[in-house]
Amino acid sequence: MQTVQNKDASHEEVHIEQELEFSTFYRLHHWVRVLSIIVLTATGFYLAIPVIAPAQNPEPTNFMYALFRSWHLIFGFVMISMFIGKTYYFLFVKSNRAEVKSIKDIFRLENWAKQIGYYFLVTKHPQLTGAYNVVQFIAYVAFYFISLGLIVTGLILYVHVYHEGMGGVLYDSMRYLEVMLGGLAFVRELHHLLMWGTILFVVVHVYMAIFNAVYGKEGSIDSIISGYKWHRKH
Amino acid sequence: MKPHTEVSFDKLYKDFENRIKDLEKLPRVKEEGSVEQMLTEKGFSRRDFMKWASAITAMLALPSSFTPLMADAIKVVDRLPIIWLHMAECTGCSEALLRSAHPTIDSLIFDYISLEYHETLMAAAGWQAEENIEHAMDKYKGQYILMVEGGIPTGLEGSYLTIGGHGKKGIDIAKEASDNAAAIFAIGTCSAYGGVQAAIPNPTGAVALSDVTNKTVINVPGCPPSEKNIVGTLMYYLLYGSLPALDVYNRPKWAYRLRIHDLCERRGRFDAGEFVESFGDEGAKDGYCLYKVGCKGPYTFNNCSKNKFNEDTSWPVQVGFGCIGCSEPDFWDTMGTVNEPLANKLYNTTFSGLGADATADKIGVAILAATAIGVTAHAVLALVKPPKE
Ligand code: SF4
Ligand code: SF4
Fold first, then answer.
1. Do residues B332 and B354 share a domain?
2. Could you tell me the fold of the domain covering A24-216?
3. φ, ψ at B205 (rounded to 5°)
4. Nearby residues of B377 by Cβ (< 8 Å), 6 or more positions away
5. What is the ipTM of this complex?
6. Do B272 and A215 touch (CB under 8 A)?
7. Cβ of B382 and A122 within 8 Å?
8. Are residues B284 and B358 located together in one domain of the fold?
9. How far, in Å, CA of B155 to CA of B158, rounded?
10. Which of residues 328-367 of B touch A (CB under 8 A)?
């Protein structure tokens, strides 16, 4: 741990210390997901209503829709691998106990009151033991289940396009889930609605990140790039 | 699906032969005439008949060597007593099968087979009709094939549907008839899943036939189902003496295994991204894919794209009109607006006019806008009064 001295305008000495907030895996997975979500949303809108018409071509070699679908599937599978990786990381990686500790925080009412008060600009930020504040943690858990829903509905749609290979292996189990969800049309609809859930999550998430960076003054945006965050030393 | 080996086909052939012999021994339910005679009278040649038999053989995924056997099998079809019930329905399934201008061999055979009880077709009425069904159910107990058309209303303890002078409830008739049947076919989307009367808000509490009986029900959905699928299901039962392999919705796999989209002749256009934008445009003339004008083929399991209608003349997508998803459960609710892609499905968010015509995207954008406003307001507020440190 490094300590840095900083003299601010009032010539009062402030000491800050550096703390590793996000590991390499964590940061990498975060940005891969950012890229995937952008690609998936863009291609997904096209797949729902194909707005772009391919250029005129005398040869039957245009596969515009199939191309969009391919990219959608490729990044869909990237998302699945990230989902599995992140789940493993959360549950089993020893050096990553801070995330798990957040679970304990959510059971204290005081944390909720203070956190919400902080967002309403009336109370102080609560002192927490885990990596995330309670509202943030619940939002992430919700996003986790939105991702899960997108993955499952996505795979159900997938097995009807590619019947061989992995599609063939998953076919029976996915059809079982399809019935549970009420048919393929509804699966398709659910997939679309969950995408909207993701979009809203991203908007609020980015705003909160900026808000915390501006007012927390801990370099929290930088931490998802460099991994390090700064704390005031008491 | 595992391919059959030659050996198993030989065995199957013998099994079928024996089954046909056994059926031949049974008394005919119909006294006069025979299927062949009937078809000749209606102007079909033996050649037409053999063509039909080979088509059915191919449809059931049997090798062409089975064609003569199929022709024999159809001759004993009058040994199988059939009871056809009408529940909450429009009689469209029966009508579609029976009232075509040029009756097909399928429809003639259907007309000919031993319908012991069929409210639309039978001569009897009133008390006599009631007696007929009781008589048939009693006489052929455990032997008859039950075909049910229509959903089963369960609201008000089932009294939305009563039939006959005794005011017997539909649900009770359906249960009783199912209990004593050798095989049960739910013909049409209504009896397979509830159908239009089960659409939200489902005032009569209509349900599928399979919801009121514990026995296996083979669903032959469609609005109406293709005649080939009805007759094919019957022929399958006749030959095998057992129920066909079924998919997740208890539909025979030989007919409902793949989506309309999987076997659609416009699929190449779909993958190419060439779509009809509005009916009658240049794309429509060139046979572009109908996805953007609401084709629900990608969500619908059926064999229309392969078997077509009206003696293989055509089918909806071929004439330039998208599939409406009629063979899927709750298609009235899940498939959204006809002629609009599923993404344009409307939600019930009228809010006295404010939210009319709300698609998922419209609602999403509205929530997004609200979020943006909230976020901006918060940011401005925080500028004026920074959060506590
Ligand atoms: S017309 Fe319908 S079923 Fe055919 S390819 Fe297009 S979307 Fe699929
Ligand atoms: S094309 Fe679609 S809507 Fe038409 S009969 Fe076939 S499944 Fe039903």
1. no
2. Fumarate Reductase Cytochrome B subunit (1.20.950)
3. 60, 40
4. none
5. 0.79
6. no
7. no
8. no
9. 5
10. 328-331, 334-336, 341-345, 360-361, 363-364, 367
